[in-house]
Structures are given as C-alpha cells and as structure tokens.
Hints:
Layout: H1 3-23, H2 28-37, H3 44-60, H4 68-77, H5 80-83, H6 110-118, H7 123-128, E1 135-139, E2 154-155, E3 161-164, H8 174-177, E4 181-183, H9 186-193, E5 202-205, H10 212-220, E6 226-231, H11 234-238, H12 240-247, E7 252-256, H13 262-265, E8 273-279, H14 294-297, H15 300-318, E9 321-331, H16 340-349, E10 353-356, E11 364-366, E12 369-372, H17 374-377, E13 382-389
Parallel strand pairs: 5-6, 5-8, 6-7, 8-9
Antiparallel strand pairs: 1-3, 1-4, 2-3, 9-13, 10-13, 11-12, 12-13
Helix pairs in contact: 1-2, 1-3, 1-4, 3-4, 9-10
Amino acid sequence: MTPQARVQAAIEILDEIVLAARAKGAPADRLLSDWFRTRRFAGSKDRRAVRELVYAAIRACGDIPQNGRAAMARLAGADPALAALFDGSRHAPAPLGADEEVAAGGFAPPWLEAALRASDVQEADLAALLERAPLDIRVNTLKGAAAALPESGTATIAPHGLRFPPGTGVEQWDAYQAGAIEVQDAGSQLCAEAVGAQSGESVVDLCAGAGGKTLALAAAMADRGRILACDSDRPRLSRLLPRAHRAGASIIETRLLNPMNEAAALADWRGSADAVLVDAPCSGTGTWRRNPEARWRLDPRELDRLAAIQARLLDVGAALVRPGGRLVHVVCSLLDAEGSDQVEAFLARSPGWRAVPLDLGAGTPRGQGVRLSPVLDGCDGFFVARLERL
Length: 390
C-alpha cells in the first residue's frame, strides 16, 4: 500500500468506528481486525501503519467526529506531511479543501470532560488518558521464581509487576505459555492487593470477567482456601478455568449469574465470605489509553445506568460478607459518581459497615478510598475502597 492508500484505508475504518460508536456496536479493535481480514493485500507494515493512523485520529477527537475524513482532517491539521497525502491520486483521499469539515478536539465529549473536571481530574491526567499504554505483566508467584524472560522489564508500582513497551509480544514467550506471567495493568494488580486475601480464606470475586484479578487473588492466597468467581458474561467467564489451570491455581470455582437474580444464586454464600471483591461494570474512563473510542460511547443516561448497577452489586456483595469480613469496591473510572460517591452512598444506607484506610504504596486518597492516576502512578485510572463489616 502507498502512504496515500494507508490514509484512505484509515478513513474508511474510522467511518465504521464512528457508526459503531453511535450505535453502541463493535469496538474499534474488532472493526480493524475485520477490515484487514478481507484485505489480504495489506502487509504487516501496512496494518501497523493504518492502525496507528486510526488510533491517532481517535485520540485527536474529543467528541465523536462527523465521519472518518473529518477525524483524519483534524490529525492532518497538525501534520503537514500527513496533509500532503490528501492529493487525490489513485487510492488516495481527495485534497483537503479550505472549507473542509474538521472534527472537534478536546479530551472527551464536553459533558464528560466537565464531569471529569468536577471529579478533580487534572489536565495532566486527561492528557495522559489519551496516550498509548505500556504493557504490564504480573509475575505469578504460584509458579515459583520468575522464569527467564527474553526482554528485561522495569519495576511497576505493583509488588509483582514488570513493565514493557507497548506492543511487546509477551504471549509468545515461554514464560507466558507456562503460566509464569500474566498480562495485567499495574493498577489492576494493586486493586487485587487491596482485597488483602490471605491463605485459607473464602473469597468471592463477584464480577470476575475473564479472571485477571481472580488469578492474582489465588496467587496471594498461595492457592490455599476457596475462591468463587462469578459473572453474568458466559463467554468471558468460560475463559477463566483454562487460565487458572495454566497458572497453577486450583482453588477457583466459577458460577454464572443472571442479572437481578444474583442474591438468590449466591444464597449458599450469604454471610460466610472473608472478602468480596466487587469490580463492577463501569464507564471505563480510566482505561482510555487502551480503548480511546470508549469516550464516544458513553452518555449521561448510560453513566446513570452503570452507577445503579454498581450500587446494586455492592449490596449483593455486602450480604455475602461475614462479620469482620471485607468488601472491596473497584472501578476503572476516575468519575466520583462511580467511585467515592458510590462508597459514601453505600455507607449511608448500610449500618454496620465502616471504611478501612488503604495503604497501597501508591495512589491518592479520594473520599473513603484511593484513586490511582495515569500521571502520578503510571497506570490505568482506578478507584478502590475497602469496607469492613462490624
């Protein structure tokens, strides 16, 4: 592909991403994969170049752009070399006009940027959320000492974390295939540490997904005790047990839940768990480094819906905790509506509970919990709080 053709390809893919964002359809990475699957002429260098153009354009647009060309025109406005590729030649985009429609900039849609600023998210963090994320791994202590890695990583804020450049192919390493390492953001690792899981305990991971934090809990417990990993997403949850087998974690059992019926399905655990982790569905505002188009998919109504789910799941999780046990609330969000406000509301409606100070060795106090920051802590944005049943 010529450089001009790569730009035109990026515009076509961006058109699909814009339509999908408006319709809450497929994510950008899937649309990219689908586009390349039907264009066998695109080599590895072409795919890499087009992907970089697409994500650079997404990050350059605060609100959802009018179309792919408007998004790319915004990117070209700051890059004369890119603008020169709009030359109208074969497979190239038409020349940019003086009255060309150009997408708006900014960090996010105006309402969402205002909500983040109202949550005391500073300019530097907003900018950092649109940078490309590094690749973090967690060394799996269930496999003993860290296996030899083909590349040297740098330490992260997490006790067992190592960091590598974006795009590092760790999935091909022998250590990964053997379960000696897991790909997991350093902030996510610290959120699992916040549970304080101990060997021999009974722990519930209420929103386990594919089990990244579940595996970290099993390692913290030295694979002794019991972990119940739950989720309502069957495909994601089905990936956990094969991952657990590879990681050497034998104490994990899974349970598929039906939304709104979680309490009945977990009646046998009522009042018996030493700790419950509620890593609830959220806006994902702390993970834009990995999914920058996610900020186009969120609206006030969806945020309210997610906050209601979080409140309900906190109540479900609280019912499972024994006296003296722990309830940990985690969201990969920097919005107070999903973090500190949720905890305050839970404590207001739940007598017999108190917040417990957290010392994670990182993060900044926020309300009754801790906020992890892309700028200050070098990880995805998270809020985490630990509550104790009296």
